[in-house]
Every structure is written in structure tokens, then in C-alpha cells.
Amino acid sequence: MSEPQEQMSSIAYRGSTSLLQGQRFYCREWALDKLRHCLDAHSVSGQAPGVLVTGGAGAGKTALCTEVVWPTSQAGLAAGLSQRCLAFHFCHREDQRSTVPWKFVLSLVEQLRASPLLPPGYEEILKRPSVSSALEPLNCQKDPEDTFKRAVLEPLLDLPPPAHTLMVVVDALDVHCVPGERVGKSGSIAELLATNQHLLPSWLLLVCSIRRQNKDVCKMFS
Predict the structure, then answer these.
(1) In which element (H, E) is residue 88 found?
(2) Whether the Cβ atoms of residue 52 and residue 210 lie closer than 8 Å to each other
(3) Strand partners for 217
(4) Which intervals hold domain Orc1-like AAA ATPase (predicted)?
């Protein structure tokens, strides 16, 4: 990977972390159990490609997503969800860079590359000319959806299924997202995921959180 691309990937990865990491989690233990049930039942035919966590401001959506990725409570540790989290991304209202689609895509690629949960072969797929060219900085910025397909979706579909269903967690998906307003082919992270959710492998569950009042974005994942 070229040095500029490594720098962009590093920036995208740092921007995907949660501001609540390490804080105490309480009062939503039941949600962890429900999410675990959805994860275990996902392989059953006919299940939806993801789970949408909705609620008003301050309802605890980000806290829940943070506990899934970095558990601190007894319930969170017992649920074992972090051991099945393949990748994550946290959008921040105060940092618009965290909502940029190409940064999101590069963040996913870097996490998948480093994840011990994937079967062997992902790194080799990234070396294919058609994939490596899509990961070039300018190409990724111009068409993040193409890079998402070539470097994330298609490689995951080519890999043998892991032993257990895994998940990707994306928090505050509606931040800075105005459906219908697109700049070039970038759009938003929400549009990127909604448009391509049908291409997710059957062993991967997409877990997203959205404010309930943002009905337009909620409808994108109905």
C-alpha cells in the first residue's frame, strides 16, 4: 500500500472510534441479549440483512454500540458480542470527517485486513489489480461505492463463511445525512450501505443506529 493511502486509512480508522469508550454502561442489558439473539438467528433463511437501532437523542444508542464493541459491564462481557464484531464505525456530529464515505470505506478495509475473524484470503484478494486500483486514494475519493464493492463486498462474498455469524456496527448513521442530496458519486455512508445491503454475505449482520425522528433515513433500511 502506498504511503498516502496508509495515511488516509489511518485517519479514517481513528475517526471511527467512540467518544464513550471506557465509560460505564447500564440499564440497557436487555438490548445486548436481543442483539445476540438476532446475531445467532441471522443464518436462518429469510432473515433481514441487518438490525436498526432507533431512539431519540440521549436514548443510549451510541452507548449500546460502544458496549457491543468495547464491553465494560458484566452483561456486555457475558454476551460476547465484541468477539463477533468484524468492524465498526462511529459517526460524530461534531466531526464531519467521520461521515465521509471514502474514509468509512478505507476504515472498513483496514479493519478487515487486520481482523483475525476472517478466513484466510482477504489480504490476497486486495492484491488483485482490479481491487488495488480501486484502493488508490484518488479513485476511492471519486467513487467510494465502487471501492466498497471491489474491496469489501466482493472479497467477503469470495471468502468461505466463518464458523459463526459476524457483524459490522455503524453508529449514528443519520449524522449529516440528507437523503437525495448527492455530490458526485459520494453520497453518504447511509446511502452507500442502504444501496448495497442486499450484497452483504449471508454470514454478516449489519447493525446500525439512527435517530428515530430521522424518518427519511430510517425508511432507507426498512
Answers:
(1) strand 85-90
(2) yes
(3) none
(4) 24-174
